[in-house]
Amino acid sequence: MKVFALLALWATLFHQGYSNSLDSCRGRCGYGTDNSFSCQCNTSCERFRDCCSDYTDVCKAGATSCKGRCGEKYNSQNECHCNSKCGQHNNCCSDYPDLCGGGGGGDVITDAEIMAISETLYVLDSNKASASELIIDPQALVPDSQTSSKNDLSSGHLFQYLDEEALFSRPTYAALLAVLDNYDRMTGQAEDFSAQQLVEQEAFVKETMSNTELGRELFAFLYTKGIYASEQAFIQDLTMMWFGLYSRNNNKMDSSGFEHIFAGEVKGGKVSGFHNWIQFYLLEKKGKLNYYSHSFNGPWTTYPDVMGMQFMWDGYFKQVGSAVIGCSPEFDFALYSLCYITRPGKQCRLSLGGRELIIQTYTWENSFYGDGKKYIGSAFPATP
Predict the structure, then answer these.
(1) Considering the entire predicted model, what is its pTM?
(2) Choice among 128, 318, 373, 374 that is catalytic
(3) Which residues, in sequence order, are CB contacts of 288 under 8 Å at separation 6+?
(4) Mean pLDDT of 123-130
(5) Residue pair 315/289 in contact by the 8 Å Cβ criterion
(6) pLDDT of residue 31
(7) Catalytic pick from 89, 260, 294, 373?
(8) Annotation says 288 is catalytic
(9) DSSP secondary structure string, 257-283?
């Protein structure tokens, strides 16, 4: 009798455990309908009302988290991913490094390593402006509470002097100048590049990343961390990541990471993006940009410096346009690339001359390139 009772208890427990595996969405979110299970875990189950009881908690609430998902196989229906290759495709969930021990590449990339490589890039920026080549006058400093006031508190230009002959003749500056004027700043207006303009985009990436010691150092770092298998793969990915078009407005292919960050855009009646000092200088010189004030000026006493500025761009206002001032194009491009690749959609802590700089990055979530890779949505110096 005791033997029979034990067998009955074992059968009950076994049945319960088996049923639980059939009635749960653990490890099944997004996969197609499988009739061998008693309930389903994809978007169709909401329509057919056959979702598992934990579908909402596991698949919907946890759709942007790696909790319980570390090492899972790639599934195109998932909003973000939690496997060792998600960093290469810029589609990791935001908590992947913390929960799964990944830093976005083949190996773990720690904050300390990112700060160390940023210091190396800082030292290698031989093309930055010197104090004799660039003179700025920050003028009015306003508190954060007044950045939206739209008051012109500075009578003069921010950029008082730039030695264009010395700086703009250098290959990376010339490559940047060639691409900055290729864009329509209004979102909702499709970009249409000529063959020459596409060549200029590729030339900019190669000039800054392949033809400078700074760019080669960034590639070497990412290569040793298993993110890129070759320099060719590195250059190709940067070109798509930065210059690939997507739609910010009206379903038009009207934007890219480069246009948003370096050239600047107008959306919803205000300036969007615009985080490059050379573009600021060029527009101010032409009389198309009026500098109002600044709400932040970094602790650096030499270039590059970091500022958060208020300005009017030909009728459109920017409340806080932060930028690294006086750096070379390759340094600007390398810092944003480093942060986006290693900390997509997160804050990225850098060290420049022993002082901390935080870059905030955002992924573009509405369209992809390659095998599910995410374009750069935005990146900028996060001012206090």
Answers:
(1) 0.76
(2) 318
(3) 313, 314
(4) 98
(5) no
(6) 67
(7) 260
(8) no
(9) HHIIIII-EEETTEEE---BHHHHHHH
